[in-house]
Amino acid sequence: MIQGIVLGTIQGITEWLPVSSEGLIVLAKLRLFGGKDIGEMIHLALFLHLGTFLAALIYFRKEVFTLIKATFQYKRTSQEHQALIRFLLVTTLVSGVVGVLFLQTLVHLEDSLAVSGKVITILIGLLLLITAGFQLTKRESSSKGPQDTTLTDALILGIVQGFSVLPGLSRSGLTISALLLRKFDDTHALTLSFLMSLPVVLGVNIVLNVGDLLVNETTLWGCLFAFLFGLATIHLLLSLSKKLNFAYFVLFFGLLMIVSGVW
User: Backbone dihedral region of 153: left (phi > 0), alpha (psi from -120 to 50 degrees) or beta?
Assistant: First the structure.
């Protein structure tokens, strides 16, 4: 029970931050609970993503229901909903292809890719700091929202999300950073990243975890606490994005990315 609560809490808090939740869960399992099988621990980390998946699904239930309804009435729905549906479909497909290719590569290059993941994280963090500097100097705010998504945005975000299979990389950190660098405003960047996570997390668990993970007390408690803390973290981040100046929000995220890469 205690193990599930601790691991679920870590997943719930870190899933939406620019740090690798999988890496922290594996580390906690090794240091605190004597884990030995890395493969089993990675499967556990992926399973705990279902808790944060449910958190995002419930938090954005109105948006998700509207998008599902709009998908079946595509020609009659608004241009904003059409753009968002296209964006999510393309990002999911591209992420799947890129992710599978990288997973095949990981078998042979795991150690070097772990190092590369940290370097990429630090570089993205530096790019965000530069972006924040420009925003503070120019005193301009970004204004792109879901209705402004293009095929280019979808391809870039799909590739970026696919990259998150690399050890040490955070899916939410990469996607939110890419959206900010593509000049989406902070609240919409967070919302789009959360929505992008839904089909990917569900798909990964169906492909990799069905039939391989024993559902027990630890995993159930873990999912529950991942759900609770994931819900609270989503709300906190969205609240901060509405209160903080865009430049300071980007600065905050950039610093977190650099600390994550160095740590």
Answer: alpha
